[in-house]
Amino acid sequence: MRVVILGSAAGGGLPQWNCRCPICAMARSEPDRVRPRTQSSIAVSANETDWLLINASPDIRQQLFDNPQMHPQEGLRHSPIRSVLLTNGDVDHVAGLLTLREGQPYTLYATRGILDSVNANRVFDVMAEGVVARQAVAMDRRFEPLPGLSVTLFPVPGKVPLWLEDETMEIGAETETTVGALIEANGRRLAYIPGCARVTDGLRDRIAGVDALLFDGTVLHDDDMIRVGVGTKTGWRMGHVPMRGANGSIDALAGTAIGRRVFVHINNTNPVLVEGSPERADVEAAGWTVGHDGLSLAL
């Protein structure tokens, strides 16, 4: 199984278009010190010919351009992407569907709850009916989006997308609006969880023994954005568990048998993005890799 991280940043990417926080400033002036990143998405293949795209970032056009294995290979119209899977309905995971509208057949997979949020917005009708099949998949039921590649979706603590929040919103609920994906091919297993509000015993049991984990790395500390002065929301309020601190993911997963550990969906204010920083060294010493665009894993 081949896994390519197309985009490793959280919403807005790095640098964000209007942000002058220290990390965004370094990404513009010192890209060797802070590597620019596009928004959250990965691609997975069992044969390195046919690919499953997981989450359609607003940056998907650039991501596909930057990875030659995703280029058209034959005829006048072609794509190696055979199917697309959504893990939630966040803007940074669904907006790229509007780019994938050029008459290219593929199947869009998501839970009924996520798919309903997409179906309710008519702008996504640009994915022409009869060209893009929309397939609802049940939780905890294995399906094959590609031959030789199976996926099982499972609930993780989270929240509804920002654009669907209302007074009934509950943070940390385990529903079908925020899911993880257990991906299997050729005897290898990958867990992909780009959004998670809390590490639970059930989650640890679910991912124990995987060959690689790509996990929510939005914030280092719960108050990252507040410390920098660019926002008032905590990681918890956004539905993301911090790497460090009380109930942080590094300590919470330390005793779980996992092969490669990689943080993805990293917010622009997270200091682990700075190469050579104490925060980066701390995360790496704990056995984690800070994901970046173009990182490829062979499992």
TrEMBL record:
Residues 51-266 form the Metallo-beta-lactamase domain. Keywords: PQQ biosynthesis, Transport. One of its GO terms (biological process) is pyrroloquinoline quinone biosynthetic process. Pfam families: Lactamase_B_2. Pathway: Cofactor biosynthesis; pyrroloquinoline quinone biosynthesis. It comes from the Bacteria. Belongs to the PqqB family. May be involved in the transport of PQQ or its precursor to the periplasm. This is Coenzyme PQQ synthesis protein B.
